Amino acid sequence: MAGGVLEPIIGPGGARLLRLHGPGGARADLSEYGAHVVSWVDAGGRERLYLSPNAAFGGGQAIRGGVPVVFPQFAGRGALGKHGFARTQPWVAGAGETFDDGCAGLRLTLESNAATRALWPFEFEATLDVRLGAGFLDIRLGVRNRGDVAFAFTAALHSYLAVADLADAALSGLEGRPYEDTAGGGWHVQPASALRFEGEVDRVYPQVAGPLQLVSARETLHIAAEGFRDVVVWNPGPDLAAGLADLGAGQHRHFVCVEAATVLSPVVLAPGGTWSGSQRLTG
Q1: Each residue of 48-57: pLDDT tens digit?
Q2: Which of 61, 110, 267, 269 has the fewest CB atoms within 10 Å, measured from its CB?
Q3: Can you give the pTM of this predicted structure?
């Protein structure tokens, strides 16, 4: 069980974080604020997630970087605030675990409460299960309907993946796929080539089941999802990044967001129903 696999640490700006220790020296730092994975260092000592140097921790503001949890609404596609409330709610962490294969794990839980009911009048339990290996990070979001009426939601794991230089980054696995261009408008088809990043990119690729690969500086990160129906790819580009106080000019060059998501067709849960979706990052 715990056995030293989980320890409290002080993170950027004095934030209180939990460090999950995995095999081979791999580690992941998490905040109970938003059930937010803010750092993942693999067994080779490489930081694979991006965290903005201007990120805020708490105060009702989402943490810019890492893996924000989007629930129960994606972006502004509904009556709630952007990306819902899960990323700015306090979650409760359990005890860290070491599994038989040597991997480390942690579960965080958010239950409906007065604050969530004031925004979204449903009874639910959300869980985030983090599993850490020497060369992979697996994050699974689960939702259970604890009430007596059905509800619908959209969700995503808004992963900020670190790249050495955006100009050299390429995302493959989406070739020939249709996508909704949220930045430029309309529907288009991805050419038969890897996606590269010039200016703002904000796209929803529906029903993407295959694995993806993000290549940067001769390193490849393999991205696979289960349970989520769509893939969202986002980078703000230079102009939008410069206008975001918790990001800043030039910071867009250091990450690509590749999100396991269910955006276009909401999940509907009957009373007592459950759903889960995961994203695995393998370096």
Answers
A1: 999 999 999 9
A2: 61
A3: 0.97
